[in-house]
Write a sequence for this structure.
């Protein structure tokens, strides 16, 4: 929770600035126009159309919500039956860092083991087949949905093949697949990524395209490509306190992000900056705690390195290793300036 | 749900524009500064300080949330015990127009009769004393909080004396008083109003100062003046999906609204415009369905008047009377331009 | 909350004794048999078969739960979608006397006016058509189910024609019809009653046959005749804490009640006793507050009568009238002895 | 889910019979007495007094509920604040086998690793200290209560020293300690057990004394010894659908179980039978999957043994081991007859 005071470089998170200047420009230009509320405005309609096209999902229903926890709680509640739970990695955001928002809606989060933030097909298969083979399963919570985030909490990526495997598993067990894309721009821009928006449109029952961490003031675009309906989702959104009166504020933001490749550019800026930092770390022999291809870098520091670097760079504390090193997270974003990367590298 | 198409005047709601230009200006100026998230930034801190001062509540805890339904659900859940319900007018927003958001949190809305949107002290007294005198009350939902909005759904106002009476009732029955100020700027600016922010700070357990309908892009400032604590409210906010990652976006807005009297000015613009329209209606003999001192005008039209006016002015449908007239709502706002009022009056 | 002390006659409620002796006899006879749990025992299966036959609903699914509030909360949660609420009379049990159990499950109770505990078709029509005609209905709770009890809280009865009218309304609005039969035996035995179990099987989406107040130690038999499925209801029952480990204890009770006309006989005993008391009251010119054909008698007493009768008879306080009289409820049951009725009449 | 058909011995569960004959006798004797409902009867009062004495907790509040899942959901909801969760072993009943009943009440179950069904002090310490040391803890669910069962799901026991250690941990972290005693009689009767009812009264914020599996038709006695209050618990019970109208039916059962040492005797019968079976298994060299001192025996069988034994004895399937053996649960109870144990041993 550090503030910019002019003395430190800031790499603590990817939500420390405002919005891409193009977004603010559009907000200013359209400010005194009068439109209908609750997403029934032309900007939201335009954003919807562009998102449908980007996902190659012409039938998709698109809704613009405000934040990630809210979106997860609302979509999961809309896709699950009351007797079902959501399956997530034990490190998944809904399992650990959402203050019980899913449970407030009455649903259990069923956790499975993970490696580098990812669930394997085997772990998922075990969770589902274990439930369905158990003769006492009617006393248990039915796994009704697979939740994963792309990239994961650890900045790693599911490959297209892995995602197709999870889709096949969902089909076998009649479960929904829901992908949390809070940082989706940074997945899309990673060189090792092979999962496109169109793939998500083809494979998911629902996913969201993150705005808050990818260049917007706030906002997450929920896409239901058409496999499953979320009936009366507008009302469910309202019931969850997630309906914006001035829906156009989100509409204008996503309309801008999906114009002239801004969303892709936002992702690229962050990943290129992260790649430069990773290269510099490797060069200096400072180990990474985890190899990640996206905008989050998990660097493993000894106490001396930690002290010196922390003096000059705001990073996010991640964990202490058994070997007595400290893992810090360095996050880049759509807003990371090249000069700041230069300066960070100089500090290493 | 009408759009501006250049052919019609727009008086359908008070959330049809963006934000006060001063707010956008500040967002642009601060855009690339780096700050901590979740409300731990200097703009939010400054907004909190200014709101505490405006409410003359130096000990108040202030939180900035996104929208009205969300704020009501979160605050009510935070103030009530699990076995308690919220008492509201049968026309209250939480009783009718929040899609069951309060019930999603497990609480019943206990309704009492209303007149022009307001609950009388007698009706409230009856609800509370009825519960406490009932020997089967432990089978019932305990009234634990009085919810009212200032102004009400019908644009009417509670007087200071009425509010003090309700506070006394809450004290007698150990209940919380919570005031929904979605349109509070328009109450504060009404000439007949005698309830100040300081009065709310003195009388309420919690209230919120509406931003969304009073000049902000979005945002509601919740104030707990100090009578009751809402422990771990930050977590409760997160659990309700109401926590903004970039808290400063709300902080900058409220900081601006509470600088140089902008919030008061926003209210005044709307009320002065509404007063001019009301005067013109009276002059032309077009009856009001309800006498209101704030920014909402409820005009009663015959079919001919309705047809002619609707052709040129976007209004909000309210209800059909038994006498065959139609009540339409004309809403002014912080953004209503004098020329538009002139044009509307010319249409009458 | 009065105890039997040998000095007073007891007419305070219809759940003040244990169970019909035939039930206890069967419990004793079968006590040490070993059976599977959770309702997978032969007694529960037999009870199900008999109930299906009595309701002429060969396809019905039947579940045995423990108590009324629990049954209402579980069935309503199973039949409603998350964005829907239950419509009930403003005096309905779920609206007033269930401590918020329906809201705990996330559903709003939408109330309509009543007369003598009954909702008119007009009041229901107004609630449903009002919702569906409202252009802002997606901001509101959708009425998804009509809840009524037979007999009502006031001991009155819906006629077959009234029930058919409500069924037609439910069909028009795609809503479920759910009948709470906590005291159903006393409705079935009333001479003015024309609604049979087969009619309930034909008209309802779900109803329950009350055991607790009609001769059992506890237990309510939920019947889903087949119009709507309640998928995974077993799990929903468990989730609501309503699953009996030793399901057979409920099974044996309903098997016994539905053997040799015991349920009908239980009802008849209560209604005949009540009819004798009503006749004696009329004879003595003591007014009834309400004409009821079932096992509950609402007698209106002046202070003198109240004092004298209360000394000798335990009754249930109902309300104080504006005219200064007191309405007391006298309840008979399956267990009411003829001699006690004689003695009560002698006291009048 | 096997039925008794006269051809098989029955050791599948401890809830396959009715109730201890003394209980049925008392139900028959008192059957036509008239008492107040909802637990305000003299039998419930007497049961409460005897339980207070047995627990040496003269100030305890005692409530009689119906079943285990219901009791867990209700007590946990009563003891937790909305932002808190319950910590349980990953094999704990509330974590796996209650169909999401805790989550329906809005609370997360936070799991910790276990050994033989038990949580170590270290695992608990790690869960609590991990939360309190995490600077992002306000985004997470606060651990507010430790849930454990005595005996555990695996029939093992916490020692007094272990329980005192957990109490000390709860004190350090201001958490409640709640013990699920569904099979408490079988813990109390185990020779290795050193935790008495008085110890539970001294150490717990709440615990329940199981009736359903320990000789009653149904019923669980919740004890709040006095460390923490559960305000308006009567209403919370009603809200959870857990309130018995004829409360005395539970009262008579617990009054009987706590008269003349019946509860202890019920436990002893089961444990002695189990001990004889365990001795016979050891003698024959049939391995136990787990050493347990209570009424549940987990026997590890090869395919041939499984086939032969299953032909003659109803057991409960537990799991398949990686080595290709099958673990079956043999459960004894208060009702297990000596001859049946003889016959089972003869089958081995």
């Amino acid at each position: 929770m550090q503030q910019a005071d002019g003395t430190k470089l800031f790499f603590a998170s990817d939500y420390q600035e405002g919005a891409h200047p193009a977004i603010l420009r559009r907000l200013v230009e359209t400010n005194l126009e009068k439109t209908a509320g609750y997403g029934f405005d032309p900007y939201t309609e335009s954003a919807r159309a562009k998102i449908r096209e980007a996902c190659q999902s012409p039938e998709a229903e698109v809704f613009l919500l405000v934040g990630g926890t809210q979106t997860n709680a609302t979509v999961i509640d809309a896709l699950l039956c009351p007797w079902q739970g959501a399956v997530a990695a034990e490190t998944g955001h809904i399992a650990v860092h959402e203050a019980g928002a899913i449970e407030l809606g009455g649903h259990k989060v069923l956790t499975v083991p993970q490696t580098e933030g990812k669930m394997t097909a085997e772990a998922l298969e075990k969770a589902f087949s274990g439930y369905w083979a158990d003769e006492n399963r009617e006393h248990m919570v039915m796994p009704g949905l697979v939740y994963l985030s792309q990239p994961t909490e650890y900045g790693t990526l599911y490959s297209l093949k892995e995602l197709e495997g999870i889709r096949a598993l969902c089909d076998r067990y009649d479960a929904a697949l829901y992908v949390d894309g809070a940082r989706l721009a940074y997945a899309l821009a990673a060189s090792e990524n092979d999962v496109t928006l169109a793939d998500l449109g083809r494979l998911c029952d629902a996913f969201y395209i993150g705005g808050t961490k990818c260049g917007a003031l706030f906002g997450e675009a929920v896409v239901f490509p058409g496999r499953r309906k979320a009936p009366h989702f507008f009302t469910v959104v309202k019931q969850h306190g997630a309906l914006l009166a001035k829906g156009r504020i989100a509409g204008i933001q996503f309309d801008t992000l999906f114009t002239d490749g801004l969303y892709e550019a936002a992702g690229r800026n962050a990943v290129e900056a992260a790649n430069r930092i990773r290269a510099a770390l490797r060069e200096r022999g400072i180990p990474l705690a985890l190899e990640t291809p996206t905008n989050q870098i998990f660097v493993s520091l000894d106490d001396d390195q930690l002290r010196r670097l922390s003096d000059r760079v705001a990073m996010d504390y991640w964990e202490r290793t058994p070997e007595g090193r400290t893992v810090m997270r360095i996050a880049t974003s759509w807003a990371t300036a090249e000069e700041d990367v230069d300066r960070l590298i100089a500090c290493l």
Summary: DSSP finds 14 helices and 13 strands in chain C. The mean pLDDT of chain C is 96. Chain C touches chain A at residues 77-78, 81-83, 105-106, 138-140, 142, 231-232, 234-236, 238-239 (CB under 8 Å).
